[in-house]
Amino acid sequence: MSIEMTSIRRHEVHCLVRPLFLAALLTANWAVAALPADSAGMETQQVLFTSLRDGSMQIYSMRGDGGDEQRLTRTNSSEVHPAWSPDGQKVAYVSYRSGHGDIYVMNADGSGQTRLTELPGLEQQPRWSPDGGRIAFMADHQGPIGIFVMAADGSGLRALTPADMDAADPAWSPDGKSIAFIRAVGKDARIMIVDVDSGAIRPLADVGKNQRNPVWSPDGKQVMFLVPGGRTEGVNIGLAEVASGKVIALTNNAYLNSQATFSPDGNRIVYLSNADSQGGAMNLHVINRDGSDARNLTRSEVQDQAPAWSADGSHIFFMSFRDWPGQIYRIKPDGSGRQRLTASQAQENNPVARPNARQQASVGQTQ
User: Fold this and answer.
1) Spatial separation of the C-alpha atoms in residues 172 and 193, rounded to whole Å
2) How many C-beta neighbours within 10 Å does residue 152 have?
3) Nearest to residue 204, comparing CAs of 186, 178, 236, 233?
4) In this structure, what are the phi and psi dihedrals at residue 84, rounded to the nearest 5 degrees?
5) What's the average model confidence in pLDDT over 328-335?
6) What does the pLDDT look like over 113-122, one tens digit per residue?
7) What is the DSSP string of 6-60?
C-alpha cells in the first residue's frame, strides 16, 4: 500500500530552515499543580524545556513532577533544541550567541557550556548517536542544507550528504550504523538512509511524495514518517519496514496528523491530530504500533504540541495553550492524570525527558 502526506514540524520558532523543511508550528502548554498520588518516579525524572520568561528563549530543567526548576543557559541570545545524550549526562543544543545557530554541548546541570561548531552558516537539529560518541546535525555552510556528523567533542567533522543535495531531519538508527533523513528535490521530499561509515545512500521506501519527519522504531525494524494523502487530502502517519520497504498506513484519514514519536518500549505511538476538533485544534492521541486502540488523550479546542514520553513510558509531557501563552503539562497514556507543570507568564515549550540507563537512544529527536 502506498500513502502520501505533508510536513508538520515541532521545531521551535527559531528554527530557520528553508521553506521546504519549515513546519507549521503548533503551540504549547504550561502547567503546575499539587502533586497527585500517581506521580511515583516523576520526582527522579529530569525534563528539559525552553522558555521565553527571560526575554529570549532559554533552556531550563525541572523534575517530572514540576519541581526544582533550574535555568541552564543564561545569555541574551536564543538557546534552543536541547537534546539529551543517551546516558543523560550531557545536553546538545543550538545557540545563537554568535549571531547564527551553532551546536553547543553542556553538562546536565548547565555547567561546561562548550561550542562545538564554528561554521559560517546555520547549524540545527543536533542528534546524538545511540552510543553517545557522535552528533549528527544539519548545516547550510556549503550552500544547500546538508547532514554532517562529528565526534561528541566537536572533532572529526565530515559531511554525510553530497554538497549539491538538500537534506535535513537526521535520525540515527538504534544500532548507530545508519541515519535516516529528508532529501529535497524541488517541491518534493523523500526519506533516504545513509550508511554512516561508507556514505552509501538509498531511499527508504516508495511511499509517495513529500515524506517528512523520519523516526526510527526502538528495535530498528521500522521508520515512521509523515506524508500527505490518505482517503482524502490529510497528513497521515506511515510505518516503513527498513528491510523490505513494506509500508503500513498507521493513520489514513482526512485530518492533520503530526509529531509522532514511539514510546520507549516501541509498542505505542503518541501523535498530534485534529481529527476530533471542530475548530481544527491539535490534540494528543495515542495508538498502538499495530494501529489498534487509537484514542484522543486531551480532547479540547485548544492547541497541544511537542509530545515527549517519560523515560519509563508512564507519562507524556507536552505543551498546551490551555494556559496562554503556553505551558508544559504531563498526562498518562490512558488520558488520566493531566497535570500542569509550569506556571510562568511566558511561553514554555519542547519538553524533553532525560533517558534512563537502559534507554540507549537519543531523546531529542521529532522535533
Assistant:
1) 10
2) 18
3) 178
4) -70, 140
5) 98
6) 999 999 988 9
7) -------TT----GGG------------PPPTT-TTTTT-EEEEEE-TTSS-EEE
Residue 23 has pLDDT above 90, yes or no: no
For the CA atoms of the chain, what is the radius of gyration? 19
What cell numbers appear for 340 in the block? 500542569
Q: What is the pLDDT of residue 25?
A: 28
Query: Does the pLDDT of residue 336 top 90, yes or no?
Result: yes
Q: For 19, phi and psi rounded to 5 degrees?
A: -50, -35
277-288 pLDDT, tens digit each:
888 999 999 999
> 317: closest CA among 87, 74, 39?
39
Which carries the bigger pLDDT value, residue 355 or residue 362?
A: 355
The per-residue pLDDT for range 146-203, each reduced to its tens digit, is: 999 999 999 999 999 999 999 999 999 999 999 999 998 888 889 999 999 999 999 9
Of how many residues is the chain composed? 367
Amino acid code (one letter) for 285:
H
Within 10 A of 212 (CB to CB), how many other CB atoms are there? 24
Rounded CA-CA distance 254/229 in Å is 8
Distance CA 142, CA 148 (A): 11
Sheet holding 212-216, edge to edge: 212-216, 222-228, 235-241, 247-249
Judge contact between 317 and 351, C-beta under 8 A: yes
Is 100 within 8 Å of 337 (Cβ atoms)?
A: no
Domains assigned to the chain:
19-353 (2.120.10.30)
Closest to 139 in 3D by CA, of 153, 128, 151, 150: 150
* CA-based max dimension of the chain: 55
